[in-house]
Amino acid sequence: MKLSKLTLLGATVIGLCQPGLAAELEVTHWWTSGAEAAAIKVIADAYSQSGNTWIDGAIAGAGGVARPLITSRITGGDPMGATQFTHSAAMVELIEAGFMRDVTELAETAGWKEKIFPQSLLESCTFEGRLYCVPSNIHSQQWLWLNNAVFEDNGLAVPQNWAEFVAAGPKLREAGIVPLAQGRQAWQLQLTFNVLMVGIGGPELFLKVYDDLDAEYAAGPDVAKVFEAAAQARTLMEGGNVQEWNLAAQMLVGGSAAGQIMGDWVQGEFTQAGMVAGEDYSCLPGLGEHEYITAAGDAFYFPKVDNPKIVAAQDVLANVIVSPETQVAFTAAKGALPVRGDVELVDATPCMEKGMDILKQGHIVESINTLVSPDTVARVTDLMVEFFADPSFEAARAQAEFAEIIATAD
After folding, report:
1. Which one of 185, 261, 269, 406 has the lowest number of neighbouring Cβ atoms within 10 Å?
2. pLDDT, tens digit, 9 for 90 and up, residues 125-171
3. Among 217, 298, 265, which Cα is nearest to 206's?
């Protein structure tokens, strides 16, 4: 990733709207935690400087709640002006149905292809050779976050991998600490399992299951190790009865929990609490086992509308999102990586630098959301909700049910 000074890039103001075309633009998103709210404000403020008006459409409850609400509005004839969404098969269905705007010409005019890195971000926005979204940030899910002081204060070395983390669990329990803080929302439980798929099993296992849809392999000994790790995680999670991911993060901040499996966006919460990466907390990409990460992140999509003022406002927002100024400020607040290869982050944390290095090595895996249908994702999610809620649900039985899902997946 070639980096250059922001000051060399930020002198030009881009994306200003034409006189007479200023408009109100409703933008839906699910960024409602403290750090997320600060991050979306960066985009909103930059957009408002164009003379347009940002109408904030925040939806609490993260993607699991927001995605169906956003989808129902678009298909029901009440589209917002723009919406944050993840690269997923669910959005492809909306594109196929003709609900979403093609922004190929806008991207070509602004030169996104030469600026956005890695190119897979644009590929994830592409359908039948046309572009339908603007990437806003790179996020990866495959991280284990650790509160260093919790381990050190209890005479334990800060773990360097999943095996060491599991081994520290009993002593942490004796000290009244929840080893693994995980929110109990469905999407987080699915995330936990799929992070284990990559971290414990490796990228080849992940793709053999979700890309090749190899049901026989999903029922075999390699995947059995992943389910054994999931059972370990379930035990480590006992006592951490919170729902939202940011509340689980606050358990780490307060020292009542030792670790959390979560995407790199959790860094924003640690930063807001005054914690310093490498000193107060550590991060293990791929759980310290297989250092591969997803690079899908978030993107903004634009529903088709007939109003030329809204179309012009969509263009402005798209240009604002990819501008170097916005990318630097937004990703710093969000705890994400920028989608441009020509900007330099301000005060990049050691964890962000790890993520950049992994991207440069090409150690990237696709998300489950881009590999299988929303129905298959939902079935895996339902299984994980049941598995993590019931300690008597044996790993072997869960694996058998999982293999059946893969056998009938689309």
Report:
1. 185
2. 999 999 999 999 888 999 999 999 999 999 999 999 999 999 999 99
3. 217
**Which whole-number Å values give the CA distances from 358 to 57, 245, 362, in the listed order?**
34, 24, 6
Query: φ and ψ at 59, to 5 degrees?
Result: -120, 115
7: tokens are 């000051």
Give exposure, 223-246, as e/b (b: 16+ Cβ within 10 Å): beebbebbbbbbebbeebebebbb
Residues 6+ apart with CB under 8 A from 228: 395
> pLDDT tens digit string along 340-349?
888 877 678 8
C-alpha 393/C-alpha 20 separation (Å) is: 62
Identify whether the C-beta of residue 125 lies closer than 8 Å to the C-beta of residue 135: yes
Domains plus CATH for the chain? 6-139+297-352 (3.40.190.10), 143-294+372-407 (3.40.190.10)
Which residues, at least 6 apart from 403, have a Cβ–Cβ distance to it below 8 Å?
Answer: 215, 216, 218, 219, 223
Q: Which helix (H) or strand (E) holds 100?
A: none
pLDDT band for position 86 (50/70/90)?
confident
pLDDT at 4 over 90: no
Could you give the angle at the alpha carbon of 97 between the alpha carbons of 17 and 132, nearest 5°?
35
Q: What is the mean pLDDT of residues 178-197?
A: 96
Tell me the residue type at 229: A
**What DSSP character marks residue 201?**
I
Write out the DSSP string of 127-155.
Answer: ETTEE-EEEEEB----EEEEEHHHHHHTT
